[in-house]
Amino acid sequence: MVRKSTKSAISSAPRSSSKRPPPEKATPTRQSKRAKATPAKSPYFDPASDEDIAESQSKSAEASNLSDYEHESGRDASTDAEEEDSNEDEDKPTKQTSRGRPAKRTTLPLHKKPANDKELWMQGAKLAPGTQLIIKKPKARDTGDTPYSDDTIHPNTMFFLADLAANNERQWLKLHDLDYRASLQDFTTFLEKLSDKVIEADETVPELPIKDIIFRIYRDVRFSKDQTPYKTHFSAAWSRTGRKGPYAAYYVQIQPGGESFVGGGLWQPDAQPLTLLRREIDRKPHKLKRVLTDARVRKAFFGGVADDATKVVKAFTNQTSNKSTALKKCPKGYDSDHKDIELLRLRSFTLGSKMSDEEVIGAKGLERIAEVIASMVPFITYLNNVVMPDDDDDDASESGSSEDTEGDNGSDDGNNGGVGEDDI
């Protein structure tokens, strides 16, 4: 006779240690985790009544009406319902958390305004969720009693550049875009009028579009320790090929605080043109000295120094850009005791003069800048004849070489050493 398994007999017996009475239907004492996780698929699942389904749907509808902020703060619909009915039914039990402690209501403000508006611009400033920050974009600066004119620099342009120097940031320029565009347009129209003056003074400069002579306001900070994104001035340059190219150029810079600048020449040219200049100075130094001792050059750039070649050469080599880039020793191939060693050490050949704000702003600014540029024409022409000589310039140089003497002390005898008076 087959004996029944003891294990099955024990498992079928009712468990007396259970806290709850067994359900009316026969259910197994142990259920798998899969049956608990998915009760709808379990054959032992007791379907919920219609009242339970309606109650669960009402709770889910209340939870769906919560805002994103309330979900993040840890509140639910049942907690809010209990708090609203707390005054009506004080005996109602408090909802317990999973650890048995009463649930606390966290009240967080939806809007939190900083004590100072400047804190909003601080790096790393934090705003509470849901905060709406509205910033009005500044309007363009009022022109006052001085309207914009094509042949003048408006005072607002100087004001904008001064503000840019104090707030050299992309966010600031973005907010003051109207002022920037107005100032750039003012400088652009001024360049159109100034270009006519430059072409009139030097006929070798062609008529070029503004985009070929104006410099961008954005700085190249890739290899610079100074990471400020913008220049604090407007500038442009004229040459036979615009602001770029191998030819000597005229340069104009507009900057407030007496930092406006008018000058020109060759700044650190390549090895080949620099070799040509040194060879010309070695063979015929009197030509450069004759140009530098011109009365208008001495007045515009050397502070009216006396008509003396030695003093003029010293003033020329002491120009900021010339002195800062000059060699400390003599160049290769030349003796240190060369009579013109100061000129041979130069790696930049430029002239320049600063101008006050009063000289630039107003009706007289255009004529003043044009006057300084016109005084520089003999110098620019000399450099171009050496670095980029034309065919007729070579023929004229060869035919007149016998008339030149090495002992010329730079006195002006009416011949500008290849620089014609008609160009002035």
Quaternary state of this entry equals: single chain
Structure annotation, total helices: 18
Helix content: 25-40%
Run of helices and strands = HHHHHHHHEEEHHHHHHEHHHH
In the predicted model, the low-confidence regions spanning at least 5 consecutive residues are: 5-13, 35-45, 63-91, 106-115, 395-424
Give me the side-by-side strand order of the main sheet.
Answer: 1-2-3-4
Structural class: mainly alpha
Gross morphology: globular
How many DSSP-defined strands? 4
Rg measurement, Å: 43 Å
Mean pLDDT: 77
Largest sheet: 4 strands, antiparallel
Q: In what range is the share of β-strand residues? A: 5-15%
The termini sit apart by 136 Å
Pfam family, one: DUF2461
Protein name: DUF2461 domain-containing protein
InterPro entries: CHP02453
Organism: Massariosphaeria phaeospora
Describe the structure in your own words.
This protein is mostly helical. Among the domains are: 141-264, no CATH class; 268-347 and 376-410, no CATH class. Helices cover 39% and strands 6% of the residues. It is built from 18 helices and four strands. It has a four-stranded antiparallel β-sheet with strand order 1-2-3-4. The protein starts with 5 loop residues before the first helix and ends in a 25-residue tail after the last helix. The model is unreliable at 5-13, 35-45, 63-91, 106-115 and 395-424 (pLDDT under 50).
